[in-house]
Amino acid sequence: MLPHDLPPKSDVPFYFARWRDDGTWRDIVDALRTEVRTEVGHRDATPSAASIDSQTVKAAGQPATDTGFDGGQKITGRQRHLAVDTMGLLLAVVVTSAAVDDAAAARGVLRQLTAGRFPRLQVVWADSKYHNYKLYDWIDSRPDRLWRLEIKRRPQGVKGFVLLPKRWVVERTHAWYGRWRRHGRDYERYTTSSEAMIQVSAIGGMLRRLDPQNNQDVFKYSNDAAKNAQDQGKLLG
């Protein structure tokens, strides 16, 4: 099912796995993020603030490793843990079993936010799932950390979905990746491949920002659909 302009099917998984293991996908993400921030967003090359959050997705039926049950979401599968900048661009990704606690999995994400990669980073926003004293102790023990973790809590007495200031951006990024059919479920056997697929999706999204294509046809109703819509409007009026 590969597009006709890609190499043979034996070559594609070879290079995908090779670039996954040697960090090439991450390097491409870093390079494109710098371009998008400076050329499109007119910002500094590296961010001063980030947001972290997780999303649970079902695993496909194949023998995938590292799957588990998320008691909160009632889903058996995996969790995607992302850190993004204020534009929603990917900084770090870790995929774990859905049974892993967010605060425990956060170490793998935050470990990637080093001073060498992000020298301007000052604050990482998170929700109350990351209010964990073991996580705080681990953060304080990191000698290469320049940032602080800031918890954004829900307003008291509010029920249901609430758009939390500052950290809602990472939820939007999860929604972006959810629109890629590949991420409707976790189809990968290994979590490292799942992380690489998130990076590939991030690359595609940033390429579209750098070179937007405005060649799609403008949506128009067919004559029958337009007439039906007009008739329904009269009935409702």
Detailed description of the structure:
With 237 residues, this protein is an alpha/beta fold. It has one domain: Nucleotidyltransferase, domain 5. Helices cover 38% and strands 17% of the residues. The chain is built from 7 helices and 6 strands. Strands 1, 2, 3, 4, 5 and 6 form a 6-stranded mixed beta sheet that branches. Strand 5, helix 4 and strand 6 form a beta-alpha-beta unit. Helix 1 crosses helix 6.
Summed up, the helix count is: 7
Structural class: alpha/beta
Low-confidence stretches: none
Helix proportion of residues, in percent?
Answer: 25-40%
Could you say which overall geometry the principal axes of the C-alpha atoms support? globular
CATH class: Alpha Beta
Instruction: Give me the CATH fold name.
Output: Nucleotidyltransferase, domain 5
Average of the residue pLDDT scores? 87
